[in-house]
Amino acid sequence: MGGWAIAVHGGAGVDPNLPLERQEEAKQLLKRCLNLGISALRSNLSAIDVVELVVRELETDPVFNSGRGSALTEKGTVEMEASIMDGPKRRCGAVSGLTTVKNPISLARLVMDKSPHSYLAFSGAEDFARQQGVEVVENEYFITNENVGMLKLAKEANAILFDYRLPNAGLESCSAGVERPLVMNGLPISVYAPETVGCVVVDNQGRCAAATSTGGLMNKMTGRIGDSPLIGAGTYACNLCGVSCTGEGEAIIRGTLAREVAAVMEYRGLGLQEAVDFVIKERLDEGHAGLIAVSNKGEVACGFNTTGMFRGCATEDGFMEVGIWE
Questions:
Q1: How far apart are CA 67 and CA 107, in angstroms?
Q2: Which end of the chain is flanked by fewer CB atoms within 10 Å, N or C?
Q3: Catalytic positions (predicted)?
Q4: SS3 helix, strand, coil % of the chain, rounded to 5?
């Protein structure tokens, strides 16, 4: 075993015009979450406990798009989704369509631990949350004034907005502007910069785990489900590795991106970073995404084909890094 390792992300696809204070705010949150995970690992918490702990912290802070601060649907409400996976026995839990659960990742953990199922959604997931006694809040808790303003912009533009953290005045100068509009399933979108959150961990016993949580897309159709709660797409963990993805959800789903990392390690014998690089290059077609990964050897890796990805990682030997750009 190579010791423990941890990686976190706050979304792939960052506009280069993002104000420096926003960049610093994001990096400070990533660093805080890394330190939280490091402290837990040093206290011998298991990988699955650590990924839940770290993603809960990310969901509680409105900087990124998960939990409080989630993107708004076309109706101005929040519908959240999350998934978690424990590598040793490939146990998993996932939830979608949550409107009142304060920490979606913890409900996903309960689906894994306390239900006979792997995935619950919408009213069924909400009912299960109340049966389990998890903390619930009004939908308004998740809604920020900033997101209300960005939903208004999205509706005026008749588009899905991905980077809803950009200042209103800077929207017209975004890197994915009108000259080369991006498309999702053939439909134009405005700005490519989703901010899903995720965490992957391998503990000092070589056990891997992964967790991912998001509010989805700004101005999305109600009922839309992305890659984040889909095991094998947005999240995957097994004996070899743990993976959490972020980016264009529909492309990640088509490429079963997270599972592909494990598959090429298992069937082609690739190392962790080689596997990540291969999947980003060969499995996204024309999609845009990024991912973080750890291996059972204590390795950590990331990859993305977007303009930046909010990310951080650390290993037991003292290495620690937080970054946005390549």
A1: 12
A2: C
A3: 196 (nucleophile)
A4: 35, 25, 40
Q: Is 248 annotated as a binding residue?
A: yes
Tokens (6 digits) for 179: 């000259």
How many angstroms separate the CA atoms of 90 and 12, rounded?
26
Q: How far apart are CA 70 and CA 213, in angstroms?
A: 10
- From start to end of the chain, where are the E strands? 5-12, 80-86, 91-98, 119-121, 182-184, 187-189, 197-202, 208-214, 235-237, 241-247, 289-295, 300-304, 309-315, 320-323
Q: How far is residue 281's CA from residue 82's CA, in Å, rounded to a whole number?
A: 26
Q: How far apart are the C-alpha atoms of 2 and 49, rounded to whole Å?
A: 19
Tokens of 58: 């990310």
Cα 14 to Cα 165: distance, rounded to the nearest angstrom: 10
Is 196 a catalytic site residue? Answer: yes
Model pTM? 0.91
225 is in an annotated binding site: yes
Structure tokens given for 230: 């889909």
Q: Are strands 197-202 and 5-12 parallel, antiparallel or unpaired?
A: antiparallel
Give me the catalytic one of 73, 100, 144, 196.
196
Render each residue's pLDDT in the chain as its tens digit; 326 residues.
Answer: 689 999 999 999 887 888 899 999 999 999 999 999 999 999 999 999 999 999 999 999 999 999 999 999 999 999 999 999 999 999 999 999 999 999 999 999 999 999 999 999 999 999 999 999 999 999 999 999 888 888 888 787 776 655 434 444 444 433 333 344 445 444 444 433 347 999 999 999 999 999 999 999 888 899 999 999 999 999 999 999 999 999 999 999 999 999 999 999 999 999 999 999 999 999 999 899 999 999 999 999 999 999 899 999 999 999 999 999 98
74 annotated ligand-binding residue: no
Count of positions (residues) in the chain: 326
Other residues' Cβ atoms within 10 Å of the Cβ of residue 138: 9
Q: What are the C-alpha distances in Å from 161 to residues 3, 192, 195, 219, 226? A: 40, 8, 11, 7, 15
124 is in an annotated binding site: no
